[in-house]
Amino acid sequence: MAAPRPARDARYDWAAERTLLAWVRTGLAMMGFGFVVARFGAFLRMLGVTAPGVVQEENASASMAAGILMVALGVGANLVAVRRFLYNHRALNRGEPIDPSPFGPAALAVFAAMLGGVLALLLGSTVLR
Prior knowledge:
Strand content: under 5%
Radius of gyration: 21 Å
């Protein structure tokens, strides 16, 4: 006769859920900020603010591209969050160890840093012209 399975500690489930919610908050923040960045070029065009020799449409299209990338990155973060949550939830249900892989958070941080660098270059090139 098999020994009864011990009761699972609910704190693991709650921790997994908190992690999911933190990822979702991060993804939503990135999507919101991406929208703001995408609309920033239109805001500058509306104010008539450009650096000398810079075509206003270049600012708008660069802002739009950077904003779309940020929104896509936020969507990607949410998809990764759901995937990791479901994987860890299934593992907890089976009594297996969860996946503590740092790949998702590290990839998100690298992509966000790269996008931040691109935004800094865009802003710097606009200001220095």
